[in-house]
Design goal:
The chain has 252 residues and is α/β, with parallel strands linked by helices. It has ten helices and 15 strands. 35% of the residues lie in helices and 23% in strands.
């Protein structure tokens, strides 16, 4: 079998099974594990899978650039954003992550809502200009253009005196074995810090983020309060979240 044919077969097995093990692939193709690991490295460089210890998982399409991500699961993100907005109560201090779903969240906030929104996303802050009763605390730092959020030491230090009621978080991967992940290390640190300064963390998850993994762990499943998922997503495929004590909220 030619190398490219083998790689296509590997991707087909990954799509079918949701994970692949290097040792099993080596036995299947009757080649060395070193050769399989080389194939996985090359496929990972192309963004076609996410390497993990002993094999690989599906990679997340949510690591694409900001403009591209606005077109992925667009209708779902509207529904999820609207559901998230309904969870915010008057008088709360709410942290909102960056990302395309977060923008949909603030677009659905009632004009008469009285609350404090803390965000490290200029995109989120701009959406709140016409909300007269919402105080916006914009966290500064180095702009991470991929996600349009502030990151770095200055951004982390800004959180020292903030204690929010809830943090609405975005991730690029949610996997039963690898938790809640994202594609940038500094962004992972920032998300974790925001979560540590909130009483509860709610994750907004469109379909392409479930069952896949990115390179950097944000939080293990045990530290997530709720996950908002599109109502059409097969409930049996996220039962593991409920079994781990996560509150599942289905949007529609």
């Amino acid at each position: 079998m030619l190398t490219e044919q083998r790689k296509q077969k590997i991707l087909a097995l990954l799509k079918r099974d949701g994970r692949i093990v290097a040792k099993e692939l080596a036995e299947l193709f009757t080649i060395s594990e070193d050769t399989i690991r080389r194939d996985l490295r090359e496929l990972a460089k192309l963004g076609l899978l996410q390497r993990v210890h002993g094999g690989a998982l599906p990679s997340s399409p949510a690591v694409a650039d900001f403009v591209t991500r606005t077109e992925i699961s667009h209708q779902q993100k509207i529904h999820i954003g609207r559901t998230a907005a309904q969870l915010i109560k008057s008088g709360q201090v709410v942290m909102i992550d960056g990302g395309t779903t977060a923008v949909q969240l603030v677009r659905h906030l009632p004009k008469d809502l009285s609350a404090t929104i803390v965000t490290h996303s200029p995109s989120v802050a701009v959406e709140l200009i016409d909300h007269e009763n919402i105080a916006v605390e914009l966290i500064g730092g180095r702009l991470f253009k991929h996600s349009m959020v502030s990151i770095g030491a200055r951004a982390l230090e800004s959180l020292a005196h903030i204690h929010a009621d809830v943090f609405f978080m975005g991730v690029t991967g949610i996997h039963p074995d690898h938790g809640f992940t994202t594609g940038d290390l500094e962004e992972a640190y920032m998300k974790k810090a925001l979560s540590r300064h909130a009483a509860e963390t709610v994750v907004m998850a469109s379909d392409e983020k479930i069952g896949v993994a990115s390179s950097y762990l944000v939080l293990p499943t045990a530290e997530i309060s709720s996950v908002i998922i599109d109502m059409q997503y097969p409930k049996q495929d996220v039962q593991w979240l409920a079994d781990a004590g996560v509150n599942l909220i289905f949007s529609g």
